[in-house]
Amino acid sequence: MRKQLLFMMLLAIQANAQQEPEPSSALEEMVIQSNRLHIPITEQNRNITVITADEIQKLPAKTLNEVLSYVAGVDLRQRGPFGTQADISIDGGSFEQTLVLINGIRVTDAQTAHNTLNLPIPPEAIERIEILRGPAARIYGINSLTGAVNIVTRQPKNNGIFAHAFAGSNFKKDKEGNGELFNGRGIQLGGSYTAAKHTHQLYGSHESGSGYRYNTAYHNNKLFYQGEIIPNEFNKIDVLAGWANNSFGANGFYAAPGDKESQEIVNTTLVSVRSRHRLSDRFTLSPQIGYRYNYDDYRYFRYDLSKARSQHYSNSVTAEISGNYQVNFGEFGFGTEARYEQISSSNIGDHERENYGLYGEFRTRQIPRVDLTLGAYINYNSVFGWQVFPGIDVSYALQQDLKIVFNTGTSQRIPSFTDLYLDQRPGNIGNAALSPETAYQVEGGIKFNRNAWETKAIVFYRGIQDFIDWTRETTDVPWQANNVGKLKTTGLNASVVYTLEQETSRWKIGVSYTYLNPEMETNHEKSSKYRLENFKHQLVNTIGFTKNNWSLLLANRFNQRISSKDYFISDVRASYQHKQFNYYIDFQNIFDKTFIEAGAVPMPGRWFSAGIKFNTIL
């Protein structure tokens, strides 16, 4: 395995998209979207990873879930591949401890984070994905216990039409079912319209297939709209709406082996309105409101809906007003938010709660070579009361392109409705006496960016109090949510990226490594569902080459979990650009490795797919 890993790292070729390489200044001008302070990525003191639109398009991935699986430190535990279902966590946290946002508006599901990534946004509509590691209450509010993923959508610059069609298979037959060849296919259509004071884009997609093993068939339909209205140079309004209907066979997802005939249907609707108003040269104000509806229908017996069926209807509304005020000695960021969450469920019941928050931040660069940001988030929850979460980021520039960074922060995770109230006997029961999880983290390291090199190495220590896990003492009693103790995690994130630009070609070599060492302090000697699933070692390698209209990408991932064996996965995409058409072929899991990311669900073996994209400017 070690020889194979070394060989693939040396020979891996990472392709770039068929666009002209962006100038180096583009990275410097990219501003991380924190709603209040507007800090370019090169000036950030936090541990942040950014996946650009260019990188998204060249990966052998057709869904957001697959894109995120190539980020070191991000743990994508897929039960259903091809974008059906996946849990996301960061740096050893649980899947409930990562906050997901779209353009700074939270979309986390208060029922359960199992449904968080049921999003209608196609990769083609994404400008970038920002992954912020560590407790981030000061920036994004509660539930960002171990980090946050912010999906920033792009605004079209021209009128255009987009189409994408693909199909794939593992060339194996469903011997337990109808004997047909396992397969998957999809089609996506989109268009954009731009005018002097407004822009619009609309995407629709359908993906379906018989899956990759018995009862893994899926049918996904999605619609996504985004509009931008610019009345004048001082004001801007963004409108976003999306709908996703996801139906899939859930063989082995939650209660293997008894759930072989289970099925799940998840229907999600998102709507948000956000505006930005420059009231003066120093003062900017940005109100926003977001709404999320989710319907989750889990059928333990897909052919008998009279028993073991769970239906959940949840609604959440979030409103926020944030601002930015610049003074001669620095910059102030401030804001307030309110959120209402409600659920009506067959085995959770009817519940609702409210949450209110107040932000305050200050950034200054008045001290020579020092960049300092400090602030706090004050939170009130109608169930759990008041909390305060301070944080500080600071860096010291040893040279223009080399700096030492340090930050410490805190956050909280409110238990989900499932954690608190689920009654799914004899399988799982909630615990209304749960306390919220709280976390603090200290991290420090170096960042170096010069010419073709981008490097960083950051070590951290995180402590999570009142860690929530699903436990049981014996196999004849239900799993129950409990505060099981303190989870202490020491870790390292390191990455090196080298880019070589030539007249008609481009090479890019990237290696990212994450090491995690968790220790649980607990008096509960019980079986655990989630405590020991995180990575111990994770290595992601990409090296790439593009020449004229040809490109090739080979991405390698080595993952070793604490509670299971390690596995090595290689994927490749080859593509050719001819006028408005892009032809590509993907080979995923080249070495046909058998592995499990979550529960008892084996992931697909070797999978082949081919596709064509059409993109034209009108």
From TrEMBL:
Belongs to the TonB-dependent receptor family. It holds the Pfam family Plug. It is a multi-pass membrane protein. Keywords: Cell outer membrane, Membrane, Receptor, Signal, TonB box, Transmembrane, Transmembrane beta strand, Transport. This is TonB-dependent receptor. InterPro entries: Beta-barrel_TonB, Beta-barrel_TonB_sf, Plug_dom, Plug_dom_sf, TonB-dep_rcpt-like. Its main location: membrane. Residues 43-147 form the TonB-dependent receptor plug domain. Residues 1-17 form the signal peptide. It is found in: Cell outer membrane. PROSITE patterns: TONB_DEPENDENT_REC_3. Residues 229-589 form the TonB-dependent receptor-like beta-barrel domain.
